[in-house]
Amino acid sequence: MVLNTKKEEVENVQVTFEASNHSNSLLAGLKNLREKEQLFDVILVVGGHKFPAHRVVLASCCDYFRAMFTDGLMESKQTEVHLNGVTAKGMKHLIDFAYSSKIDLDFDNIEDVLSSANHIQMLSVVKACIDYLKTHISIENCVNMASVVELFSLPDIQSFIYQFMCSNFESFALSPEFCRLSQKNLSQLLESNYPVNCSEADVLSAVLNWIEHKFDERVKFCCSLLTKVHIDRIKKSEIESLPNNHVLDKILEIHTNLQVLFQGRKSSLCHRLHQTGLVNVRGYEESLVCVGGFSSTGGMTNEIKYLQTSTDTWKRLTEIPHVNQCNFGICVLKNALYVVGGCYNEQMQEVIHPYGFKYNPQLDTWDSIAQMTIERCRLYAVGGDPSTMNDQFLHSAPCECYNPDTNTWTQVASLPGSRSQHAGIALDDFLYVSGGLEDLDDGVISSFYKYDPNLDIWTELCPMLCPRADHSLYLFQGRIHVVGGWFNDPVTQQRTMATTIDCYIEEEDRWEIIADVHLPRLYATYTVYGDCLYGVGGWINGNNQSKASTVQVFDMVTGVCEDKSSTSIELWEHSTCCLYVPSHKDS
Asked: Any keyword Repeat (predicted)?
């Protein structure tokens, strides 16, 4: 066969060859030149030690050497270059890395390598050192690590170390290493505001142990350190039973100004801490949390947001691990958020489901919980819209009780009648349920019931002052209050917004009006946050064309109500609650 090819075509043929192992061959060649001491053109002198090298190799690995050898500095013309700010031990490892792309790190060399790499800004090695410290941190070495990273100004790894100390505070405080902390390190640890795994009384005891370890030398730091302990969260009995209480007595004799700090504790804070179910709220921020709902821009959503009080803005917390849904029930138990039941759309049909999920804000994780025995749209499961063949209400919907310890649901006594769009709340050891729709014909009711779990019975109490559906119950100063919702006007049969906040006086079994609601909202939620009642989202005066983009804040102490326009959140048919969220959520 004869291949006829034009001369022009042959001349224009181009072939590109790429060696897959070229980088390895190049490194091997450079290493070979170094071993044979060939073509060296610079000697680095560090602490009396000399390290022959090739300028091009050093410059290719590090901007520090590139600038030194190419920007006309005097070192570019010197045969020997003396380096300061690095150690011979560290520099040897860095030069080995430049010729091999590998570095062996251990506790004997990590400080030298990190200091040298940080000084010449060999960033890949700095990162390798930081990763090594993070993966090898322990109670036995964390104090040394804190000193090292502070010396080299590495705030990210410093935060990681303090977070480790806090999460292991109980064991760390009992170790000899704790008393080796410098005053500056201990102060920064207390200020870091990461969650700890012990009570605040244990934190106080640890600080007292640190002071006692070198009392004469450290007593001068007492005021600055003890003011960083949350004394108002410690019961008087806990302070009196501290094993080192004698140290505190000695300190108070010297620093009399601290006596006010220990005498001015607020017992209410201790009570609120007990209610959270947390061992300690150090490192947490009580936050208003908004769960799911409908938005005018994105339709149904599973997103969960929380109100960051420092900036007065809503930030993303997490998302329910399920298809977008609505009409679920939520509650907070031992600072875990439970989301149970609900319904979702499938081919334009509302599908009711029995699934439940539990969110842990400290770990930022979700777990599934046992299914309810009956699917509902609405941790007691009371009423709601149970799924039936004909979408009719059950005459008496079974109530279910969830046990988080055994992850099981059990049926309890049924609430008389059947209802949906009602409200419920727990007070002391009892459950209270109010209002709702009694049937599918919008029969709004005003009934109010109390459930005793010990006797497994429901007791009918004084009904609310007006019927309410889609309303909220909340607690303030130990009393049940009702706010929001709607009812059918008895004359016009038109949907009418409930415009008052009513309080239930249990010892007299009666309700009384305590305030009027400015611009009542339909499908809004109301949650106590601090001393204020927060109304989030909804339709103003029940008008679906007038979505509420502000948060309505009612100060229950002063009686003043205001709209906070800076916290724009336009939602309806959502849920809100209060949850303690880690202050350093993003880390």
From this structure: yes
